[in-house]
Amino acid sequence: DEITIATLGSHTALHILKGAKLEGFSTAVITVKGRDVPYKRFKVADKYIYIDNFADISKEEVQEKLREMNAIIVPHGSFIAYCGLDNVENNFRVPMFGNRKILRWEAERDLEGKLLRESGLRLPKKYNSPDEIDGPVMVKFPGARGGKGYFVCSSKEEFDAKVKQLKEKGILTDEDIEKAHIEEYVVGTNFCIHYFYSPLKDEVELMGMDRRYESNIDGLVRIPAKDQLEMDLNASYVITGNIPVVIRESLLPQVFEMGDKLVAKAKEIVPPGMIGPFCLQSLCNENLELVVFEMSARIDGGTNSFMNGSAYSFLYHGEPLSMGQRIAREIRMALELDMIDKIIS
Ligand code: ATP
User: Rounded to the nearest whole angstrom, what is the distance from the C-alpha of residue 139 to the centroid of ligand 1?
Assistant: First the structure.
């Protein structure tokens, strides 16, 4: 029977659906009135499943429609956020591309840290308490807040002052502050590295790289330092866009080694491991070491920077390959080889 590739209309849905169509699949988007515009205007969806609001995504009737379409869901960041991790793990009975069990390992900071550390990747130094701060640190808070309220400081005194100020402004609660995560501030250049692990080929592919375009920090740095001081602004790191980037070629062995290590360790810790797209968000320091501050265990939003292919994905087959199309191609290959169980959960 015909397979439909489906996802929630948000995040990376445009190239997931476009890629699926290019590989000959039928496509469906789950959407709400008003948010369907991009999928209609770019004509990437064959079918529309309308819900009243995104939080209804996990409802039984939506799952029913998806099963009737013989759908394979491609989960992305927004899909997981609206469906909820518990639902994704236990109640969403539609075949899903990738290993749904690994999603918790990117969502919970402790699990994420364990997987990255045990993979042997370089991470920012972690501080257990504000009393230990002995140099520039980045302070993060729990929840999918997109970098709001995050701040940089260099001492316990500065930490206390900033926390007090952010509390007064209503940006942070006592509970947030209790759970503050303090890590070394890595001064370097940002590379978010998008990999694809193919279980069928048993190979990690480098699909593309982006760097983040964040508000208001990327606007703040355009203000002369003396004016910044007078303006008394709080920095925030809310993602607003992505910029494609390439890394100096001599760093590529390190890039591949990082992807290979993570895939090997994930097979051990969360079998069957990392399947399909994943992303390592890193900062390259002056010693040319890539320090990883975050991981996505599914398609990352930064892949939107190469919907028409990246410098790297082009190298494989000389074609403009997006991450969305790469996913669809793996599904198509698995169907041909009768190995679909290897890539869905
Ligand atoms: P995401 O939506 O990607 O999960 P998040 O809210 O978890 O974002 P991070 O990605 O951890 O936030 O951090 C937001 C931004 O802060 C990063 O893109 C980067 O610019 C900066 N950043 C994070 N960690 C560090 C660090 N250790 N040193 C320097 N800058 C950092």
Answer: 10
